[in-house]
Design brief:
Low-confidence stretches: none
Oligomer: single chain
Helix content: 40-55%
């Protein structure tokens, strides 16, 4: 029976890829036995309730082999993946896009495709499960108790982020993470001998993982036995499974020719003959559907029913924890953070926004028990430490501070996995200039609609003596160009509180908080509630004829310049723009209210690249920004030499 079902997976993939004239059949044909083993013998999933929080998770890190996952979902009975959808592989509007996309297709647990990120995201799934289990499980009530399984290929292990995340997972001893390595010695350009020669299992042993080898990737029993052993290892597990890419293809099998191109009619006919598959394209025997119904759908439905009763009994016996669990199961936070939770701030109070962020973060942590995060070895510079907790590790799984180490990219992928798991609000911090290192993970946060909060400090040339390598210039413009990402650069402690409030209440948009090292003064006109509009008036003279537009630390500068301009007869409005994304989302009437079209004398001020601001100042205005790299000197010296002075702002306004 298993051989028939494995071949059904293979040829659903082959036929769909042939029909689309596009795709990657090799991994589908080679990895089908291990995927079949996981779905029918190990995993508890319920196609009728695809988002069941206690399901086992499956991440196809080799996301280019997406037809492997779609075949499994179809055979298992997921409604989203009908045979018509299989036949529409890679077509406009289908539920079967070229790479698996979370939120687009039920049964897809994570967006994968950028190699290395799938396996790294899986680390976050395992850590989220561990935290929730430690927090809510009681003796006899394992309401959070599941595994995370991954199929990864050679390319995943070449990408550096997988090494970062694996090192971290070993340190954390995440024992419910099991990775199956589809080891076929072929990559897109040819043999892996040209690109990957180290012993991957030995490397993972050095990371602190349990490892094993299955010599025959078609041996379902051997794969199952290796997984069962891995479950008892007490650490994350890597099982190397030796496979043949394009297994069964007569001339292309075992070569890179089957990696990223359809088999074609002749090669497909030969594969059908070699594997004894006597069925027409897209024809699946009923015995296969029956196999998956019994061993995936029915088994999963039974596990779900047992779990549902367990949760009901738990809520009756532990009503306080049960109420929090009920909120989590409903996709909500156990507690809602409101503006009233933050202390009022006096005008004139002066503090770096990174410090204001830590104050706000700790207000949230005090109230919201499922709020956790950390930093890439910079917690005491990023000010991301929850003061009431210690560091989280295997011995202290309930602590909410996470030391990610100098692993910015992996930090982002782990946060994505934790957010994908559900039940948690998570954040991570580093210096803003190193947002470059984590940006690929931020992109997947945005693409998947995950409300991860990224805390980026040391936001400008005010870093000073550390010089150009540590002074971000183009980073704001780059992040602002990313869809579904809110970039917030607050002007003072009050705006920082509001920014955190927005971040921790965001349903499906990640947030980048861009924060200063230097002190900023709380302006009289800054307004917690108005930050949500993205831009608003913080200062103005009656009958204003000039608008100064600024974000972050430059709002203080703009207000000072406005007052000096007024003394000389120029009437100025100052607009704080903590978030261009939020402002751009407002209606035309509000935009006209803040930036009236009739007032053409406009200057935008920001210690960063200028691109973001021309849409606001127009052809008649000017931007005081930076379109070259920074310099090494005391902060105020750098700031002055780059023109961020009252005198220069006044001169630029007067030049209009």
């Amino acid at each position: 029976m298993s051989n028939l079902s494995v071949n059904a997976i293979r040829f659903l993939g082959v036929d769909a890829i042939n029909k689309a004239k596009s795709g990657h059949p090799g991994v589908v044909m080679g990895a089908a036995p291990m995927a079949y083993t996981l779905f029918t013998k190990e995993m508890h999933i319920n196609p009728a309730v695809p988002n069941w929080i206690n399901r086992d998770r499956f991440v196809l890190s080799a996301g280019h082999g997406s037809m492997l996952l779609y075949a499994l979902l179809h055979l298992s009975g997921f409604e989203d993946v009908s045979m018509d959808e299989i036949k529409s592989f890679r077509q406009w509007g289908s539920k079967t896009p070229g790479h698996p996309e979370f939120g687009h297709t039920a049964g897809v647990d994570a967006t994968s495709g950028p190699l290395g990120q799938g396996i790294s995201t899986a680390v976050g799934f395992a850590q989220a499960e561990r935290f929730l289990a430690a927090k809510y499980n009681k003796e006899g009530f394992p309401i959070f108790d599941h595994y995370t399984y991954v199929i990864a290929g050679d390319g995943d292990f070449m990408e550096g982020v997988s090494g970062e995340a694996a090192s971290y997972a070993g340190l954390q001893q995440l024992d419910k993470l099991i990775v199956l390595y589809d080891s076929n010695n072929i990559c897109l350009d040819g043999s892996t001998d040209d690109a990957l020669v180290e012993n991957v299992r030995a490397r993972y042993e050095a990371y602190g993982w349990h490892t094993a080898l299955v010599e025959d990737g078609t041996d379902v029993d051997a794969i199952y036995a290796a997984v069962e052993t891995a479950k008892k290892a007490g650490k994350p597990s890597l099982i190397e499974v030796k496979t043949v890419i394009g297994h069964g293809a007569p001339t292309k099998g075992g070569t890179n020719a089957v990696h990223g191109a359809p088999l074609g009619d002749e090669e497909t006919a030969g594969a059908r003959e070699n594997l004894g598959w006597d069925y027409a394209p897209f024809e699946i025997p009923e015995e296969v559907y029956a196999d998956f119904k019994t061993n995936v759908a029915d088994r999963g439905a039974s596990a779900y029913a047992t779990w549902e009763k367990l949760v009901a009994d738990y809520q009756a016996r532990f009503p306080e924890e049960g109420a929090e669990v009920a909120a989590i199961l409903a996709g909500k936070d156990p507690v809602t953070i409101t503006p009233e939770d933050f202390p009022a701030l006096e005008d004139g109070f002066s503090q770096a926004t990174r410090n204001s962020s830590q104050d706000a973060l700790n207000v949230i942590a005090e109230k919201l028990p499922t709020f956790l995060g950390g930093s890439a070895d910079l917690a005491h510079s990023n000010m991301t430490y929850i003061k009431s907790d210690g560091l989280q590790d295997a011995a202290n799984p309930l602590n909410r501070n996470i030391q990610f180490g100098v692993r910015e990219f992996a930090m982002g992928t782990v946060l994505n996995g934790m957010a994908l798991h559900g039940g948690l609000r998570v954040y991570g911090g580093t210096f803003f200039v190193f947002s470059d290192y984590v940006k690929a993970a931020v992109r997947l946060s945005a693409l998947q609609g995950l409300p991860v909060t990224y805390v980026f400090t040391h936001d400008s040339i005010a870093v000073g003596e550390d010089g150009p390598t540590h002074e971000p210039i183009e980073h704001l413009a780059g992040l602002r160009a990313m869809p579904n990402l809110n970039v917030l650069r607050p002007a003072d402690a009050r705006e920082t509180q509001a920014a955190w409030h927005l971040a921790v209440n965001s349903p499906s948009t990640p947030t980048a908080l861009v924060l200063t090292r230097q002190n900023l003064t709380v302006e009289k006109g800054t307004d917690f509630a108005k930050v949500a509009k993205g831009a608003y008036v913080v200062y103005e003279a009656e009958g204003f004829d000039t608008i100064l537009i600024a974000s972050g630390s430059e709002v203080n500068l703009a207000v000072k310049a406005a007052k000096e301009l007024e003394a000389a007869g120029t009437k100025v409005r100052v607009v704080s723009v903590p978030s261009t994304e939020l402002f751009d989302a407002q209606d035309a009437a509000y935009k006209e209210e803040i930036l009236p079209n009739a007032v053409r004398r406009r200057v935008a001020i920001e210690m960063a690249a200028t691109q973001s601001w021309y849409k606001y100042v127009g052809l008649d205005g000017k931007v005081i920004g930076i379109d070259k790299f920074g310099a090494s000197a005391p902060a105020q010296t750098v700031i002055d030499n780059y023109g961020f002075t009252v005198e220069n702002v006044v001169a630029v306004v007067n030049s209009l």
